[in-house]
Design brief:
single chain, 319 residues, alpha/beta, six-stranded parallel beta sheet
């Protein structure tokens, strides 16, 4: 089978296809022929040598995919800890779920990483509830647009930020009640102007250090801030007196490094509580662009240059 290999040379991504043996499924695994795979920032970190796969997982990049199961031909999506950018993947059975009926397999590849990340952090970690207020940073990313939609599905009011004014419409289109250009405006001031002081119950933050002060400023008593990445820095000072006064909870969360058993529990609950919303139309997969595998390098450049609004996907031949 063919697998995607991506390297960086002189500041440019170079992608090629390499031949390797088709994976043999182990106990609790299912062989999936890949229709499409999703591009994530984790891929860029792994290419740079800063985000190796967990022990025992494939060295091939790629954390999500859609395709058909070998033998039965069932249409599925899968969350994996590595190996997604390939023609075939041996995926843990507990991390598979049916592709939504009526949705083509290519856009379906944009569900696993974005929506499971949003689900585990908003619902399972932060316990976002109906009537609460949610702030989503980097709202035009795949995870961001998924989180906005999921917040509205839960019954929350949602504010979302972006640093690109042209992306504000995408935040509103996903359901954001308040879309903020964080390059032009202080997001905390904008939220206070619309919702008042101490108004946000949950913050989903992939930015990191630069946004923490504002997160705590807008946080309600008993509020939760979930950090899922540190794109703009990991080290900062924290006003512990403010944390105590607000009884705030600062949560750190990752998905890739969790055990297969834990991921299986997450996926099972996602299937029950969230997956039907795709069939009903309450949730939409936010696809930015689809690249054929022979143009994969362009997909990684688009991700690194932050030009995407939603998911970037790579389509694999299905003939």
């Amino acid at each position: 089978m063919r697998v995607l290999q991506v390297t960086e040379r002189d500041g440019r991504y170079v992608a090629s296809l390499a031949e390797t043996e088709r994976p043999v499924p182990g106990d609790g695994e299912v062989l999936v022929r890949v229709a499409a795979s999703g591009v994530n920032r984790a891929d860029l970190l792994q290419i740079a040598g800063r985000y190796p796969p967990p022990p025992g997982e494939p060295e091939i990049i790629g954390l999500e995919l859609s395709g058909t199961t070998d033998g039965t031909g069932a249409a599925v999506c899968a969350l994996v800890a590595g190996g997604g950018h390939a023609e075939y993947v041996a995926a843990p059975a507990g991390q598979l779920f049916p592709a939504p009926p009526g949705l083509d397999l290519v856009p379906a590849a944009g569900i696993p990483e974005a929506f499971l990340t949003a689900f585990v952090n908003l619902v399972m970690e932060a316990h976002l509830a109906r009537g609460e207020r949610l702030l989503v940073h980097a709202g035009a990313s795949g995870v961001g647009l998924a989180a906005i939609q999921l917040g509205k599905l839960v019954g929350a009011r949602v504010a979302a930020t972006t640093r690109t004014s042209a992306k504000l419409g995408a935040l509103e289109g996903a359901g954001a009640d308040l879309a903020i250009d964080a390059r032009q405006h202080d997001f905390a001031e904008q939220i206070e102007g619309r919702w008042g002081r101490d108004a946000v119950d949950v913050v989903l933050d992939p930015i990191g250090a630069p946004s923490l002060e504002g997160d705590l400023r807008v946080l309600a008593t008993g509020g939760r801030v979930v950090f899922i990445a540190t794109m703009a820095g990991a080290r900062t000072e924290v006003d512990l007196a403010l944390v105590m006064r607000k009884r705030a909870r600062l949560l750190g969360s990752t998905l890739r490094g969790r055990s297969r058993a834990e991921k299986g529990e997450i996926v099972a609950r996602f299937r029950r509580e969230i997956l039907p919303a795709f069939a009903s139309g309450a949730l939409q997969v936010p696809v930015d662009s689809v690249f054929p595998v022979d143009r994969a390098a362009e997909a990684f450049h688009r991700m690194r240059e932050n030009r995407n609004v939603g998911k970037i996907l790579i389509a694999w031949p299905r003939d």
